[in-house]
Amino acid sequence: MENTPQNLNQCAQLLNESGDFQVLCRLKASQRFHQTKPEAVHKVCIIDTETTGLDTDVCEIIELGYQIVEFDSHGNFFQVLAARNYLQEPKGEISAEVTKVTGLTLKDVKGHSIPWQEVEKELADVQLCVAHNASFDRPVLERYSEVFVNKIWGCSVAQIDWFTLADVGSRSQEFLCWKVGQFYYGAHRALDDVQALTELLAQPISEAQNPAFHYLLQAVRVSKSLIKATGAPFDVKDALRGRSYRWNVTARVWQKVIDESKLQDELAWLIEHNTPNPTVIKLKATDSFSVRAN
């Protein structure tokens, strides 16, 4: 049998229908998702960074990838307006561990720099940025350019309930692409990750079969507060951790970001657990996943 696209598709279909195999397709990055678009569309920048480490205060960007995509209020994607990938030579070293993950060495990035003025111009009229772990990418990017400071940010890790909506327990992007989208890609290079995330967010999930991006938009639109369990007794720490609070080393307090709709229930829970005077800070829409939300 010849390896023609038609024959290969037939083989893949037979294997999938057998129940004994699952065939994954290599991602072919889409330039357009829906042909007909409404009059009112918006722009989202789906973005990813590769860095020299995991400490957002000091790590250096060695690669930046992003796509600007049109979308409507229901979360449907339309045309990809721009797809960019830039390398950046760091001041420090690239460790063997980072090279193993990204494939990038100092030789690969030597002499390269990100044209931040071009990036800023291209993102000037984009209101929303999305990353698959915005709590990492946003603080890093804000150190490099002010263009990211006043954007609204969304996170496809924290703001989509993949288990409830898609019956997937892991939030790893590669795993989600396999289970939800049935495709694979060259992971851990910035633009490859961005194009895969764009495809993942376009996938229909839940009984309603809305695109995953629809549910991320719903979460982004909800007002949020930062709640600090000020004065919480030591013996409550495990209960706080189990309730998704995290320890702020600098302020020495347990804290978390919470939807406004859940705030009163959370305050009642804290009172029941001997924390009657928590600190509540209402967050601006542009503060989510920023250091300003700490």
Structural description of this entry:
There is one protein chain. The protein has helices at 5-18, 96-102, 106-109, 116-123, 134-144, 162-166, 173-181, 190-201, 212-220, 237-242, 263-272, and strands at residues 25-26, 42-51, 61-71, 77-87, 128-131, 152-155, 183-184, 204-205, 210-211, 224-228, 246-248, 253-259, 279-282. By secondary structure, the chain is an alpha/beta fold. Helix 7 packs parallel to helix 8. The longest helix has 14 residues, at 5-18. The protein has 11 helices and 13 strands. The protein folds into 2 domains: 22-220, 2-Layer Sandwich (Nucleotidyltransferase, domain 5); 224-293, Alpha-Beta Plaits, CATH 3.30.70. The strands form 4 sheets. The protein has a 5-stranded mixed sheet with strand order 4-3-2-5-6, sandwiched between helices. It has a 4-stranded antiparallel sheet with strand order 11-12-10-13. A two-stranded parallel sheet has the order 1-7. Helix content is 32%, strand content 23%.
What secondary-structure arrangement, pairings included, does this model have?
Layout: H1 5-18, E1 25-26, E2 42-51, E3 61-71, E4 77-87, H2 96-102, H3 106-109, H4 116-123, E5 128-131, H5 134-144, E6 152-155, H6 162-166, H7 173-181, E7 183-184, H8 190-201, E8 204-205, E9 210-211, H9 212-220, E10 224-228, H10 237-242, E11 246-248, E12 253-259, H11 263-272, E13 279-282
Parallel strand pairs: 1-7, 2-5, 5-6
Antiparallel strand pairs: 2-3, 3-4, 8-9, 10-12, 10-13, 11-12
Helix pairs in contact: 7-8
